UniProtKB/TrEMBL annotation, chains A, B:
Homodimer or homotetramer. It comes from the Bacteria. The active site is at residue 155. Spermidine binds at residues 62, 86, 155-158. It catalyses: S-adenosyl 3-(methylsulfanyl)propylamine + putrescine = S-methyl-5'-thioadenosine + spermidine + H(+). Pathway: Amine and polyamine biosynthesis; spermidine biosynthesis; spermidine from putrescine: step 1/1. This is Polyamine aminopropyltransferase. Catalyzes the irreversible transfer of a propylamine group from the amino donor S-adenosylmethioninamine (decarboxy-AdoMet) to putrescine (1,4-diaminobutane) to yield spermidine. Belongs to the spermidine/spermine synthase family. It comes from Sporosarcina ureae. S-methyl-5'-thioadenosine binds at residues 31, 106, 137-138, 162. Its EC number is 2.5.1.16.
């Protein structure tokens, strides 16, 4: 058998995974959900044909979306996670004993069920007693919150399909309101390399900048996302991710990580000139 | 027409480029040479079916292989380049007025001719009066040099095919001898992500470490190379790429770059934990 799953990274560039077995396929109320067993990347989850998570490289994304804000403010206790149906972001958060409460809002309950069955590597910690799952629209959920969280992580799909509303000004404004005065917002920001992804990144950055006094962008090497060059936005009411990083405090926690370390934390905010230009001209 | 060029990034992962025209194909004494006009990446050069350079992202590789050593020691005057038939490395070197002499040793004259015809973006500066082209085996050339260069850049193909000998201990030992006491060696080091590439990287790192008192590894985001996560080795008899970096001096040169800047220079040496593990266990 010679079966391949192919994703368009741009209209003119494609990435293909050798597939051993198509483990699951269904269409939920919101999107098409598939799980494949691949040879190189272990199991992969796709939504509407786009790769969301692979067992081989998910550690990179989840390290970077969680440990960067947690090392910036180690006293974070109350966290809101939007999206993140695979559970990887929650898994990393539950490693911090200091965290008291994790609310996770995922629009599509079926994604969580599928991940609990097929991707225990990422989904296993969703049963942690500090975690409350809300199966509803993140946009509506966050509208009702005020001064409630130390950290909001927006771990959404791409800015089209069900994730579209999560890249709007209204949404980021509501995130600002939902955060307390120490609040930090982390947003998955797409890639700077392909034109359409870069526009999504510029739109998100511009919208977030309008609300938060601190708004910075950092990067990671994620091989299975388009171009492998992935950006995150860290916005904050008070904390600066470089100046306020307390490396000794984070290292004293003794967390073992395969990608993140506090030197890389600092290095990840040093962006290439072409990315800085995109951010300066964001609209 | 719906024509695609596909490269295997591992036996189980493939990247494909939409092709508008197959501009050139021939087999030289050493390898198969092809040039394609692609929609997303402009013209691309492949050797034996592996992408060497694309017009869209070559700036990243060439910025990082040249400006990192040049900013580490701005008094570099004599440079040896091994491989680099597309001319991009020489193009970046010729931007430094302080450089007096560039010897470029490329085993395959036909690669240079093809790039001069089809890739003027990278090859145009090969006619700079400071540049001397030698069409011979880099391994043999470097054996005959002693105390002759401030900088050697090994811009080779992958460690199989004609580039194979350039990843051996004997070669790096001869590079050490060919450098003067300020000497710096920069080596393209493959990717850490796929198993076979990682083994090439480990072999090169281990061999270089045996000769040079300073031996560090840095990274860049190069979307069209396997995994997009690419490493370079910087080894040196004296200079440390972080401690000896004089950002003010480099910035005073006023060079415009699309990827490199001196903050990114520092950040690029902050490696993920899994890469540091691979380097520690290199054999």
């Amino acid at each position: 058998m010679n079966l391949w799953f192919t994703e368009d990274h741009s209209p003119y560039a494609r990435f293909s995974f050798r597939v051993e077995e198509h483990l699951y396929t269904a269409t939920s109320e919101f999107q098409k959900i598939d799980v494949f067993q691949t040879t190189e990347f272990g199991r992969i989850l796709t939504l509407d044909g786009y790769v969301m998570v692979t067992e081989k490289d998910e550690f990179i994304y989840h390290d970077m979306i969680v440990h960067v804000p947690m090392a910036t403010n180690p006293s974070i206790q109350k966290v809101l996670v939007i999206g993140a149906g695979d559970g990887g972001t929650v898994r990393e958060l539950t490693r911090y004993p200091s965290i008291k409460k994790i609310d996770m809002v995922e629009i599509d309950e079926q994604v969580v069920k599928v991940c609990q069955e097929f991707l225990p590597q990422t989904a296993a910690q969703l049963t942690d007693p500090r975690v409350t799952l809300y199966f509803e629209d993140g946009l509506k959920f966050v509208r009702q919150q005020e001064n409630a969280y130390d950290l909001i992580i927006v771990d959404s799909t791409d800015p089209f399909g069900p994730g579209e509303g999560l890249f709007t000004k209204e949404f980021y404004g509501n995130c600002y309101k939902a955060l307390n005065e120490q609040g930090i917002l982390v947003n998955q920001h797409e890639s700077p390399f392909y034109a359409e992804d870069a526009r999504g990144m510029q739109r998100a950055h511009k919208s977030i900048m309008g609300f938060f006094p601190v708004s910075k962008v950092y990067q990671a090497h994620i091989p299975t996302y388009p171009s492998g060059h992935w950006l995150f936005g860290l916005a904050s009411k008070k904390y600066d991710p470089i100046e306020d990083l307390d490396s000794d405090a984070w290292n004293a926690l003794g967390l073992q990580t395969k990608y993140y370390n506090t030197k890389l934390h600092v290095g990840s905010f040093a962006l290439p000139n072409y990315v800085k230009e995109l951010l300066i001209h964001a609209k």
